Amino acid sequence: MIEAKKKIKTIILLVSMLIASQSQESEVFAKPMDLGTKIPRSVEESVIQLKAVLSQKMLTDIKSLPEDGIWRFNSSLGAEMRNTWFYGHSKEPLAAFFFSKGIHHPDHMSGIILRALWSDLNGVPFDLEKQADKAKLGELRSRDIVKEIVEIPKELTSAELTTSTGETITIDDQRGMVTILAFVNAVNMYNSNEIELLNQLETKYRRHGLKIIAFFMKNANDPEQPFAKYQMNFPFVEKPPLGFVRKLTQTLTAPAAIYLPCNALLDKEGRMVYRIGGWNDSTMKNLSDEINSHIP
To answer: Which of 2, 51, 142, 180 is the most buried (most CB within 10 A)?
Structure first.
């Protein structure tokens, strides 16, 4: 009975803290903010200006958060910064600074300033270059196609792969032709039009020498799916050799953008020349020009 009462008291305390936190956040988000008419020229100036115009309560709230909790202010203070300092102000020095760092999305710009403010309030060193590189990678990841030349080791290009039809192939077999390596997740494969889009791509460029090799990425907990249900116009590797996919994806994702998906467009020499972010209508539209540049 005593233990039960302790548990009830603990639950009541936690609920009370949650309600207090939510009401505090609602108050912060509800109040309109005036960032002033002057647009700061740098991240440092942005922090100085925010400390001058924000209420002491908001500054205290920001300071009390863990660093990763600063996202709570993305839709309030962050939105106010984007509306006041970035949208419609692309020629201002502040936006130009972020452009020079390869950062083009206002969400990332305001996010960096929020982290800089949090660091200043907590007396923590702020690594601007590190945050800028992280944001730049995030923007690269969202792009459909990224140009990058990567040599694939012989041990991978010569590995024998058995397709779903029983055929044995290698990546080396495709030399002399432009090749796409597609890594398809088991769940996505059966819940999207990825296979249809890849079929369309293969049909459109088949006579020009395009080849597609798809790899079936299946986790241990993914349900079994019937391959016969889907008509694929290209080799599909259901069970690649042990460790092959891991080594191949590590090769294709290094070194410039290690968080990007590893679908790849290979030139006739077997080098990756473009990393492909995924299979959708937008990708297909942008990919056509790149394929045409490598196919006569």
So the answer is: 180
